[in-house]
Write a structure and sequence with these properties.
240 residues, mainly alpha, 3 helices, 86% helix
Length: 240
């Protein structure tokens, strides 16, 4: 932004020095003011064009640098508007009213652009807030994942310990079952031996019973025979 160095721009014509008292000097001053006002107006328009280009890129300033550039340009536009107002207020030119209207129009053009920038600021703040929330959520998710992994690792270690204990208990159980199997096999062998001995004893008893019956029959036969012989002997004795 460049301001035209116009002598006595902000001084009313009535307060001019005695060297600028003639009508020619007043006319020259009015031309200089008109030229300065026109230059301010052009610079103001060019500045707003730059702001509109920045806004047109993504609908509104979408970064800190573009926002800073837009705010800086609007500050320049405000300074140009102030300079234009100073020329309009200090000049008694017939175009004074026209200049004021132009200044007001230029000032009015800044309002919507400033609102766009304000929306851009809010948008960036919202994006920044959402980014922080996402980062916070991501950190929370990572911490939750780490905590979950630690819990799963603890569960895995506990499972491994239980598996080791189960394996040890299974080995002990297999050893006990092996001993019991040997004991059962020994008992089965003794049972078979007992059955065999019982069968032998049964056969022996049967044989003894058979012999006892035979001896009893022989004894009865002998007794009967002796009775018959005694009877015959007695008969023979009594028959003599």
């Amino acid at each position: 932004m460049s301001f035209v160095n116009v002598a006595e721009t902000n001084q009313p014509p009535l307060a001019a020095s005695s060297s600028i008292s003639t009508k020619e000097d007043a006319t020259r001053q009015q031309k200089a003011n008109a030229k300065a006002f026109t230059q301010y107006e052009r610079e103001h328009s060019a500045t707003l064009v730059k702001v509109r280009r920045i806004i047109a890129r993504n609908g509104s300033p979408s970064s800190d640098s573009s926002l800073y550039d837009a705010e800086s340009l609007l500050s320049e536009a405000d300074a140009l508007t102030t300079a234009m107002r100073g020329l309009a207020d200090s000049s008694k030119s017939p175009f004074n009213t026209i200049w004021k209207k132009k200044e007001e129009r230029c000032k009015a053009e800044v309002g919507p652009l400033r609102e766009e920038i304000t929306r851009g600021v809010r948008k960036m703040q919202e994006v920044s807030r959402k980014r922080k929330e996402e980062e916070s959520n991501a950190e929370y998710a990572m911490s939750s994942s780490a905590r979950l992994l630690n819990e799963q690792e603890s569960l895995l270690l506990e499972s491994q310990r239980l598996c080791a204990e189960s394996e040890e208990f299974g080995a002990s159980t297999l050893g006990t079952m092996g001993i019991q199997r040997e004991q059962i096999q020994g008992a089965s062998t003794r049972l078979h031996e007992t059955i065999s001995m019982t069968e032998q004893a049964r056969l022996i008893i049967k044989s003894m019973i058979r012999k006892a019956i035979v001896n009893k029959i022989v004894l009865y036969f002998v007794i009967g025979l002796l009775i018959v012989l005694n009877g015959l002997a007695l008969k023979h004795i009594f028959s003599k």
